[in-house]
């Protein structure tokens, strides 16, 4: 709780059963249960679209998915009056305690206790399910912090520090006891009406499945779903195929007698290089075909979230989970664990905790700067896959780019080998930043083939 800036946690929820809560799974689990969806136009004006100005539709998750996928069965359903290419739909603030009242065992799929909140699970969270384009107007929450687990799809967060409040033109209309809204549509601002907004410093991050976003108390945030629910799944399959190909190659070449095992017991099968390349090609082809189909058919299946709320003195506490899913936990301060320290604990950022920087220094969810990705891809267009600076190996982390000479003067090969082993190699080569960049390069190359 001493962390005062927004950050993304990696590798905190890899064993949470809630990561299996994709929209199809939830539709089966909540079969027949009618849910209220908020509906809005995708083409936004310069004014925020508050909840009081939206349309509302009641339907099941099965009907919602059929509509978002433009299946024939949705022609007469509750969403039939809205064209999915023009409208988004969002089931927000759906209490898990109510949704899963017949399946209370599902509460245990969410493990907020891993973050130091003993005994807290999904019962205090809420579920959010929406299509691409679904959004929440910019606001700050009056009390508590936010922990958001992304389950499926991707969400882009626009964050602003408390000291920028005057630049965001706060309002209590529409009134919500736990929130203060901004009069500004932060993604399409009317700078003539709100000129001070130019001074606001945007911290922007896109949160991917399995990642957990921490939003400190009183930080403003605007949230938008930016992908169909299956986009991230296709890209993840490409990254998985790359990882599998590399890890099997290293495993085959490594000394199998070593006691330092780095393969999970559930991943002991080492398939052939030919098999792995077939899987990689299938994943790349599937991803490109899906992206092409989205562009031509405007398929917009959405995102789902889970939020939790806490009742305390008749006040609402929010915890959000997305299907593009987020879990957003806003614990009541009175319930926070007491940490006895002589001085504030220093927060160490690194591979598993990524600091969210202002937009001018912005990083993407894998920790690599957005400008680095764009510059690298544009400069090497038509030459993807070629190696530059052949005499060096580059290793990028969150703070800098270090270049390490392949030949170290005065060092023998045996001395270098003694200091670097298989685990060291895998930690670098299989770093999510590296795999993410390789996946983008492969997809870019495949588009030009």
TrEMBL record:
Entry keyword set: Cytoplasm
Does Nuclease appear among the keywords? no
Does rRNA-binding appear among the keywords?
no
**JmjC domain mapped to chain residues:** 88-279
Q: What is its main location?
A: cytoplasm
Give compartment(s). Answer: Cytoplasm
Q: Which InterPro entries match?
A: Cupin_8, JmjC_dom
Q: What does this protein do?
A: May play a role in cellular stress response.
This chain's protein is named HSPB1-associated protein 1 isoform X1
Q: Which organism is it from?
A: Gekko japonicus
Q: Which gene encodes it?
A: HSPBAP1
């Amino acid at each position: 709780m001493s962390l005062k800036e927004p950050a993304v946690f990696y590798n905190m929820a890899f064993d949470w059963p809630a990561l299996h809560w994709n929209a199809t799974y939830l539709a089966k689990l909540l079969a027949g249960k009618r849910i209220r969806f908020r509906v809005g136009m995708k083409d936004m004006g310069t004014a925020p679209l508050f909840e009081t100005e939206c349309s509302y539709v009641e339907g099941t998750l099965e009907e919602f998915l059929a509509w978002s996928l433009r299946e024939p069965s949705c022609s007469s359903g509750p969403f039939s009056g809205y064209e999915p290419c023009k409208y988004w739909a969002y089931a927000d603030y759906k209490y898990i305690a109510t949704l899963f009242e017949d399946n209370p065992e599902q509460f245990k799929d969410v493990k907020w206790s891993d973050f130091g909140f003993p005994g807290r699970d999904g019962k205090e969270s809420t579920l959010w399910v929406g299509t691409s384009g679904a959004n929440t107007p910019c606001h700050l929450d009056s009390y508590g912090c936010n922990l958001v687990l992304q389950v499926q799809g991707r969400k882009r967060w626009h964050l602003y520090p408390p000291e920028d409040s005057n630049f965001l033109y706060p309002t209590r209309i529409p009134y919500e006891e736990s929130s203060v809204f901004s009069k500004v549509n932060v993604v399409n601002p009317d700078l003539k009406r709100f000129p001070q907004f130019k001074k606001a410093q945007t911290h922007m991050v896109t949160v991917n499945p399995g990642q957990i976003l921490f939003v400190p108390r009183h930080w403003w945030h605007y949230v938008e779903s930016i992908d169909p629910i299956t986009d991230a799944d296709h890209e993840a399959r490409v990254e998985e195929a790359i990882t599998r190909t590399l890890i099997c190659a290293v495993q085959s070449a490594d000394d199998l007698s070593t006691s330092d095992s780095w393969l999970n017991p559930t991943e002991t099968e080492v398939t052939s290089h030919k098999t792995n390349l077939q899987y990689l090609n299938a994943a790349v082809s599937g991803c490109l075909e899906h992206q092409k189909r989205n562009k031509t058919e405007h398929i917009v299946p959405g995102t789902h979230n889970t939020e939790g709320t806490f009742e305390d003195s008749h006040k609402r506490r929010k915890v959000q989970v997305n299907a593009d899913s987020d879990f957003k936990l806003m614990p009541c301060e009175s319930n926070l664990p007491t940490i006895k320290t002589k001085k504030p604990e220093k927060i160490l950022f690194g591979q598993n905790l990524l600091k969210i920087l202002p937009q001018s220094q912005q990083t993407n969810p894998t920790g690599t700067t957005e400008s680095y990705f764009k510059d690298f891809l544009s400069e090497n267009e038509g030459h993807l896959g070629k190696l530059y600076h052949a005499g060096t190996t580059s290793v990028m982390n969150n703070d800098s780019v270090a270049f390490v000479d392949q030949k170290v003067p005065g060092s023998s090969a045996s001395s270098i080998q003694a200091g670097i082993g298989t685990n060291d190699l895998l930690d670098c080569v299989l770093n999510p930043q590296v795999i993410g960049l390789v996946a983008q390069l492969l997809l870019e190359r495949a588009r030009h083939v």
